[in-house]
Write a structure and sequence with these properties.
The protein has 115 residues and is α+β, with helices and mostly antiparallel strands. The protein has one domain (16-111): SH3 type barrels (Roll). It is built from 2 helices and 7 strands. The longest helix has 14 residues, at 98-111.
């Protein structure tokens, strides 16, 4: 994926899967609200992995194709993190369905004991 010029007014939106620059380029799910994402310098994300860990019940399965993912993956809901927008590549890969996003949010709440 090559970096494209950022479209005027673009900001990462909740539910989008974007490639982020960490130790290497990897997908991550944006989970912070659009109201915050529009103006803040950073966003909250959940990293995504293609390595399945059956012992982690807080990893939500993401089927290949959903959100633009090229392989079956898992949202690492136990590893919520915040990144500067400068580490997020444009354009996003895609967007999760509302049903999948709800499952991710429920797993995050469990991981952080918010429910």
């Amino acid at each position: 994926m090559t970096d494209l010029p950022v479209s005027a007014g673009w900001f990462p939106r909740r539910g989008e899967i974007c490639v982020v620059r960490l130790d290497k380029a990897r997908p991550a799910l944006v989970i912070s609200s659009d109201a915050i994402n529009r103006r803040a310098l950073d966003v909250c994300v959940v990293p995504i992995t293609s390595v399945e860990h059956q012992r982690f019940s807080l990893r939500v399965a993401l089927p290949r194709g959903e959100g633009g993912l090229v392989r079956a993956s898992w949202a690492k809901c136990d590893q919520v993190t915040t990144l500067p927008k400068s580490m997020i590549k444009y354009p996003p890969l895609g967007r999760l369905t509302n049903a999948t996003l709800k499952r991710v949010v429920a797993a995050i709440k469990t991981a952080l004991e918010l429910c």
